[in-house]
Structure formats: structure tokens, C-alpha cells
């Protein structure tokens, strides 16, 4: 029976390969047909190698290859395959599990559509037999006992077989064949006439021609015929047979295989094809997805050589897909307009398309139709022009071309008409999705930091992935906020929901947290203020948040958590832990909520990871399992490249229902630690003089000489402005980090200094800030705890030694505290 099935599929050799126990290769378990060595089939295929069998197994898609196509695989292909043979490799899988491959060698230059359909159904049944055998035997797939999987699979395809002895006219038919022609087994007498009595009279001449004396020849024949069932309805059957000869070549017997045509050609039916295409287009979200579905659905089933899909934009056709994608496969006018990934062609250069699009009707052009040069080069054997209608207008066109002469059957015309309508609607829907995606991306980029700041003593990287469903903008955010005195704030959060409202709240909360942090508030106060702000906004949305302030000089970190997943640490030795931060409620729930502060010391080489729940939690993955997975990836990854480390933590998130944010900081510690000195300025008549003296002593101790006068002038101007224009305490702080000297003067007034627009030459004041700006590499003002701090940075030349000059107001490496003027 297996031999007859091979005749039905026009196969010279059929083989089954199953996955080895170690999962490294596909091993041969069964063959049927000619000698395996004659066609170069090996006993195994390594999955790591290049071959059509390995490709079919990895991709889960059938591979149909001619001997010429096999040549591209080089040594991994069947080198012994004759030039007039073809190879088919079909994956075998069940319940999402890949079991092996069915390999078929075909004596010809390719498999036709019906042969491919039969073999795909045959492969499905073989996979079912392999799965059943593995379950029964408890071993590897393919161990199904003495019954061959190639043979037993046919029993489930409703395929019957028979053997006809030509000299006697006696026929031996199996139970499947008798069931197909509606004959009870006990009522069959072994005569051909009994079978033919059930055949529709119009189909008898075709059946009898197979065994006519003048037509007998060794080889294969196939045809379709009908039988009339007892209820009067017709059933289409397909017969494939092979005539075998005796020792001298005289025809002796006929081996036949009969199958229900509806089983053999499920995709040949117009409704079935349209249903499959509709289902595929329903899952196509973007224009690129629609283009891929159309090319796959049309080119191979129709035997076409080229498929092009284009959108209509004004007076130009903008191509969205070309198959094959090589420019050389398309007309010269297309190649001349190939300025990007796909060309866009002026429609006036293609009058045939222009007419079809204007009329909105499908145009099927036979060979020799006199096409213009812009189309003739792509369809010597025939061209189908399918305008794509949607919402009362034509939005694009699909072109299907053949090199060999092609006849358009009525079924094919119906299929192309239905395809055009489906593709047009899908293209419009994909356009709307792409526009929504672009809007969401633009909104998300405007709300998240464009780049993270460079940090002294550490490297920060971030990743954000939008959700795959709905509006691709959510409430996840992150931020890195540089703070004075070598501190930095890291924040990550998640606003409830995926909507423009959630994105708006996210932007407001991120801005508020940054403002509170820059003002100099400790982490718990920053979160408390942000919580009250969100409560006062009277929104139904809430937000979770994790906030960390890190001293980049000392490695001290202070954590606050508001309903958010805990931060993770990777220590220099590779071990990981969840930071035990006492959590508070989410922001926006309780106005008087309190948030505990947790202090942790970080050693150089430590990696801090802040993440949102989309990375560690889903409907199928509990939070604990997700955190365990991320910790494992964090421990195994190489922290030397922070970007690759972040990518490795994301893992496989190709299908995600929630957006994902990840913020990493690798703390390296400062190689050059800044030195500081501070001075509390009393409001005395000679306060500026004392401030200058303190600054001069400090600069001498720090071996700063060349720029001393410039720094003293900046100190004079900033201290004078603070004493004249504010009330309350004033403080002067000096910080030397590398070649940058920072002068900072703090006061209790929240008003920022205003640089004068115009200073008259007779004016006695107003030039202070202009002088500061001229002498500073950078300067500015930041709010600090109800007041402000005006700062200036000056590039200096230092001659530092290990021991600073003793007896001055500053000491290297530590804050000298407050020095009060006498």
C-alpha cells in the first residue's frame, strides 16, 4: 500500500526522519521506494547544518527544491540527486512539538499543487502516528511497533488501494476503497464490473482508456472521476495508478490508489482558500505583514513567478512588497525608481495599470497581450492586475505574473476577485495601525528621556518595549537625574493602563519627581510629594514607582518603593539578590501615605537593575518566577557591556501584553574623587573679603594658581549678589573634580538670578552675572530646599600632591565642614 501511495504522489522515494534523543540531528527511521543511495539521502541530517530538511524542521514550513535549487546548499545538499529530480521536505509536528521530517524524492522538475496538498496531508497523518507511537511506547517518536508509519498514515487519509491482474480481470481491493465507492465488503465479488457499476456513465470512457490494449504502457497515470452514492449525490474521486510489467516488460498488473478529492485538494476549493487568506490577513497588523501574507498566499499556490503589491499615493505607485525582491527581476523603469527599500513608479508610465485602477475592475491579460515596457518584462506568460478596493475607493494594486503561458480557470478568477477585496480592506486597516503605531512611538519618545546622562563612576542604560496589542503607548517610564555633590537619582515607574491618559499622567509624574529631586529633597520626601500631587490630580489612575538616590563617590544608596517590583542587585562576584525595600502603597491611592527609606552600600562592580512588571509578570508567568528568571540572566551575563547586559535581561518578549521598561546602572566608583571645602558666610560688612580669603587659601592647598584670580572674581560676584538680593544664611561651597572647579553659593531665596538685558555705561552695577558668564565654562541656578544655589564651573590647571597644604580650610577627599569667619 505504501508503494501505491508513492505512485499517487508521483514519488520515487519516501523517507521519514525523526529527531534524535539529544536533539542535534534528524535520523532516518523508514524508507519506501527506490534505493536510498541512488538519490543521495543520508542516514541523518545535522540541525546545525544547511539543508532543505534541516530548514524545514527549523522553520516549520515545507521546502520544495529542484536539483538546481539544492546546489545553493553546497555540500549539505543531496549531491547524488539526478538533474531531473526534485526534493520535498515536510516538517512533522504535533501539539506544538516538532518530531521530524518527511522527505520525498519526485521524478520531475517540481511538485504540482495537488501533489503538495496530498503530501502535506500525508505528513500530518505521519506526525499523528509518530506522536501516538511515542505515547504508547514511551520512547522516542517513530517507535510505533511493527506497523509502518508510512503505511498506517494512509489509513487515516481515506485512501483506498487495489491491484488489477490484466490477464484475468480480477481485482483485489481493500476495505478503504470499498468504503469510498459504497460497496459492502461481503458484497464485493472481485470483478472490475462491480466497481465500474457505481461510476457516473460520463466518466467510464476515461477509466476504461487506462486498460485499453493500445494504451497499455509501463508508468503512471492519474485522473479524476465521479461515483453516484446511494442517496443520489455525487462524490469526486481521484485515481492514480501504475502499470507494472513482467520480466520481459510486458504489462502484467495495475496498482491503483483512489482517494476522495476533497481530502486531497483542500486548498483548491475556492472557499477554503479564501478562508485561509482571510484568517492570515486578520492577524496581519502592519503593511509589511499584509504584504508578506499576500505574496505567500498567491505566488506559490498559483504557480506565479512574480507578485507585486503597491499602494496608490497620489499619482505614484509605492511598492510595499516584491517577490522575488531582487531588482533584476523587475522591469527597467522600476529599477530606475529604486531609491529606497522598494521602488515607487509613476502611474502615468503604466497605462494598463492606470486604466484598471480608474475602472476598479480586475484585468486578466493572457500571453502576448501587448503590454507596455513597464509591465511586459514581468509577465511574458500572463498578468493578473488586481485593483484593491476599500471604503469606496482604490487604495492599491496587486500584480501577479507568469513567465510560462498561463490560462485563468473560472475558479482562479473567483479566487483573485475575492483576494482583491480582502487585501484592500487589510491594507487600509494596516495603514491605520501603522499611523497609530507611529503616533504612539512619537508620543512615547517625547515623554521618555532621549538619552541618559554620562555619570561619574558609573554607566546607566535603559530599554523600553511597547505592548504588542492596543495603543502601543503605556505608562511605563524611567529617568536618570544628576544631583549635586556627585549624587544621582534613578527612578522607574508604571502608570496603570495603556492609553493616552496613562501616558499623560506618566509625563506629569516623571516631571514632578524630577523637579522634587532637583530641589534637593531626600528620596522619601520626593515620593511623598509626588504621591500627594497625583492624589490632588483627581484621576482614577494610580502609579507604582521605585526611586533610588546613589552617592557615586561613596557608593551609598537610598531606596524607596511605592507598590513596585523590588530592585535587583548583581554583586561583583556574580551573585544576585532582591533589595529588601519596605514597600509603600502605589502613588495616587492615599494622600497621607508614608514611604520607608532603605539604605544599602554598593561596592564597585555592582549592577543595579530597576524594572517594571511587564518584564517579570504575565498571565502565564507569576511574579516570583519572572524575578527568578531575570536574576538568573543577570547572574550569567557579562557586566562589562551594560547595553548587552540589558538586552540579555529582556529575553524573548516577541509576544507581550504589557509594556516593558528596564533601567540598569553599573556602579564602578569614581577613579578621581572630588575634594570639597565649604564656608558659611556671615552678613558682615567685610563678608566678601573673608570669602575671598577662604577661597584663596583653599586654592593654594589644591595647587590651583593660574586661574586663581578668575575664581576669586566669580566668588566675589556670586557672594555679593546673594548678600545684596536675599535674606537669611548664605553658604559658599568649592568642589574640585579633575580639571573642573565648581563654585556654588546657596541662599534662602527661591528667585533665580536675572541676567540684565542692557547695562548702560554709566551704571555702577548690573555687570556681575555678565562677568560670571564670561569667565565660566558653565553656570546656572538650581532650586535647593526652598532656596536656590547659583553655581559656576571653571576649567583649572592643578598641580596636586598627595598631601595638601595643612592649616587651610579644606582637606583632600573629605568635606571640611563649615569654617566660620572670625
UniProtKB/TrEMBL annotation:
**Reactions performed catalytically:** O-phospho-L-seryl-[protein] + H2O = L-seryl-[protein] + phosphate
> Entry's InterPro entries?
Bact_Sigma-Reg (IPR052016), GAF (IPR003018), GAF-like_dom_sf (IPR029016), HATPase_C_sf (IPR036890), HATPase_dom (IPR003594), PAC (IPR001610), PAS (IPR000014), PAS-assoc_C (IPR000700)
Alphabetical keyword list: ATP-binding, Hydrolase, Kinase, Magnesium, Manganese, Metal-binding, Nucleotide-binding, Phosphoprotein, Protein phosphatase, Transferase
Q: Which residues form the signal peptide?
A: none
Q: Where is the PAC domain?
A: 221-273
Keyword set includes Metal-binding? yes
**What would you give as a GO molecular function for this chain, any one?**
ATP binding
**Looking at the record, which segments are called Disordered?**
799-822
Q: Which Pfam families match?
A: GAF, GAF_2, HATPase_c_2, PAS_3, SpoIIE
CDD domains in UniProt: HATPase_RsbW-like, PAS
- Which EC numbers characterise this protein's activity in its record? 3.1.3.16
Report which superkingdom the organism of origin falls in: Bacteria
Q: Sum up the protein's function in the record's words.
A: Primarily acts as an independent SigF regulator that is sensitive to the osmosensory signal, mediating the cross talk of PknD with the SigF regulon. Possesses both phosphatase and kinase activities. The kinase domain functions as a classic anti-sigma factor-like kinase to phosphorylate the anti-anti-sigma factor domain at the canonical regulatory site, and the phosphatase domain antagonizes this activity.
Protein name in UniProt: protein-serine/threonine phosphatase
Q: Which organism is the protein's source?
A: Streptomyces sparsogenes DSM 40356
